[in-house]
Amino acid sequence: MKELGGGILYLNTNSGRSEFNSFAYDTIRPLLVEQNYISDVRAWNGEPIDFDLDSARTTATDAKTNLAAIYLRHFGIDENVLDLPWLTTRGEPIKLHKEIIINRTARRQAKYQMLEVTKWHWLPRSIFIGLPIEHEWFEHTFDCKIEYFPTRDALEIALVLKGAAKLIANQSLVMSIAIGLGVPFMQEVYDLAPNCQFRRQGSGYF
Amino acid sequence: MGERTFKHSGALGDIIYSLPTIKALGGGILYLDIEGGKDEPAITGERGDGRIRFDRRGYDTIRPLLLEQPYLRDVAIWEHQPVDHDLNDMRKVPASRGAFRILDAFYASQFPPGSVAPDGPWLTLKSQPIKLPKPIIVNRTGRYQQKDARWEMNKSHWLPNGIFIGLEIEHRMFQHTFDCKIGFYKTNDALEIARVLLGAKMLIANQSFVMAIAIGLGIPFIQETYESMADCVFKRPNAQYF
Fold this sequence. Notes:
Radius of gyration of chain B: 18 Å
Number of domains of chain B: 2
CATH class of the largest domain in chain A: Alpha Beta
Largest sheet of chain B: 6 strands, parallel
CATH architecture of the largest domain in chain A: 3-Layer(aba) Sandwich
CATH topology of the largest domain in chain A: Rossmann fold
Helix content of chain B: 25-40%
Number of helices of chain B: 8
Order of helices and strands of chain A: EHEHEHEHEHEHEE
Distance between the termini of chain B: 46 Å
Distance between the termini of chain A: 30 Å
Strand content of chain A: 15-25%
CATH superfamily of the largest domain in chain A: Glycogen Phosphorylase B
Radius of gyration of chain A: 17 Å
Shape of chain B: globular
Largest sheet of chain A: 6 strands, parallel
Oligomer: heterodimer
Strand order of the largest sheet of chain A: 5-4-3-6-7-8
Number of strands of chain A: 8
Order of helices and strands of chain B: EHEHHEEHEHEHEHEHEE
Number of helices of chain A: 6
């Protein structure tokens, strides 16, 4: 969108897919409207549009194609732009009292053991963000206690990430925001669909 | 020569996979260490935090199933008495000896190099099977998940005929992960899990304790294999892996 000159983004909350509904719209909108290349974000009710971003899905040849590159490729844009962050925030970063942010969603889990054998290095310096059930599951899976910071929307997630030294997460919404912001991360890669890898200094994959 | 004695410090699945070795050695009395091997670096070192995976609750869970095995005369809490076979030695077996599967590692720790562990079932039940209203049993634990995309693709085939067993939190997380509803059957111990499995047509699960029992019983299963440690693979005509 940025490379195409930006504009109004319409989001379809009635596609029938449970992954994106009005709750998700309310979650992501506050972060999107902070981007200087997006003049507004609205719910789509059949208005005509110039670029149908859903059509980019046909470009993906396999599950390993970088998710951001799919859009660039579909609209004929140089993929090297992905080497630079594309998200900004106007608000002050939220600095929690621990420097590492942890997030692990239910889907795209793949490297439990790597987290298990290293957890005592990073857990004491970490706070979990995400859904309450994800926090509960994380504590259950790794037989540990980790503080939880509830976030109300994607903008607050971004501000928390901006205030942190690093994110450790799987291929989640939180990870995509960190990548977009250029916040250092350690990513648990889902080997069946390793499609969220970007060149970022201070970041790594396991 | 008196009755052979064995010692094991867990965890639950590992105890199940050690049984073919105990059986091949002639059976006897199995002592379970409810302190989970807290003083054994080979065990605590695996986690890096010194914490254990087997305690009194685990003992109470697994004992009823173990007592049904004809090659185990008794199962008791280990009180530091000497034993003939310390099954914890399996953790010292290098993978280079071809003992990549958990079951093979137990075997290799007690038998000369080159000995081959049997691939067939090793659990039997005296108790009756429990037949639930649906034929497929589903279980997915927190550890060893790697293929949610495959579950997602197949859930419309599997889940209408499925009932979930395991912990209550595992059931909630399964429904959250796959945005679905599936019935839950609460099991009280490993013997009840085995009876439910024996009454079912098939198990679909990851590399869990429930999967270990299904493999031990020889019931059909579809396994979500954890590629980074695919140590629960058995050549069975009724087994599938994804």
